[in-house]
């Protein structure tokens, strides 16, 4: 297997999953994330429906690759009961979601058909 160049990762997305029962916790976590990292992240919409390949309601935390060491360890230690799907952004969206993702908490099966062009 040929090693891939990590400089291909230009950014990361952390998708925080929630449902009706964990909605308030997800919103509170979002506010804490925004207070702590708001200057260096972009928060996506709070989707109370399925979006793209995601099998649960979610919102996105987007950040540059250079911020990984600041943000990901904090998410790992502070996500509580919320599950987070973390993937890099390169020029291969399917591989990023299918082969290069990391789960914080419980993992889920993605709807990868949603990524097919």
From TrEMBL:
The keyword Chaperone does not apply. GO terms for molecular function: dioxygenase activity. Keywords: Dioxygenase, Oxidoreductase. Pfam families: DOPA_dioxygen (PF08883). InterPro entries: DOPA-like_sf, DOPA_dioxygen. It comes from the Bacteria. This is DOPA 4,5-dioxygenase. It comes from Burkholderia lata (strain ATCC 17760 / DSM 23089 / LMG 22485 / NCIMB 9086 / R18194 / 383). The lineage of its organism: Bacteria, Pseudomonadati, Pseudomonadota, Betaproteobacteria, Burkholderiales.
